[in-house]
Amino acid sequence: MYRIFLLLSLVLLLPFFVGCQSDLEALPEDAVILAFGDDYTYGTGAEEGAGYPAVLERLIDRKVVYAGVAGETTAEGLERLPEVLAGVRPDMVILCHGGADMRQGLKAKKLVSNLEAMIRLIKDADAEVLLIAVPPPGHFLQPAAFYSEISRKMDVPIEINALTNVLSREKLTTEETYPNAEGYALLAKAISKRLKTTQLR
Asked: Does domain 29-198 have CATH number 3.40.50.2300?
């Protein structure tokens, strides 16, 4: 009887879990992907051309437009985003932002509000969104909890651990705790794996 109850419970809960996946729609070969963000998108810590967008472009064989600005806050990114979207007209945006806010000790509430506003702008531009969770600075790195909350609220997929996994390994980071070239390559591979399982065709 218990097994029957457990089975029925799983069947009833299945639609809930499926609905929470927020899987990305398939991207054709001529799709344009916009990598938008702050230092982690800019490639701080590695030489030019060694950031994750350049590596990702080679891995997925899709055009990846790099639009990262070192030290940019989410407020500044929100102001910059409309012009970038209009110029690039992407099919998908990889949004990795908020690290500069946390490094500068800015309020999390405003950070969240800015990220949600960015996602609305991206959706209004008819582009898919992949949100990259960023950990706050510290010795015991964990993705900031509000990224998952944003993902659920805005119904967008999230890559929750990829950046944290890189920043948690000393050999993959610089003294300033930014990824080095090897770290960015690993980040690109994690994003590539996510896209190849849910997105590319």
From this structure: no
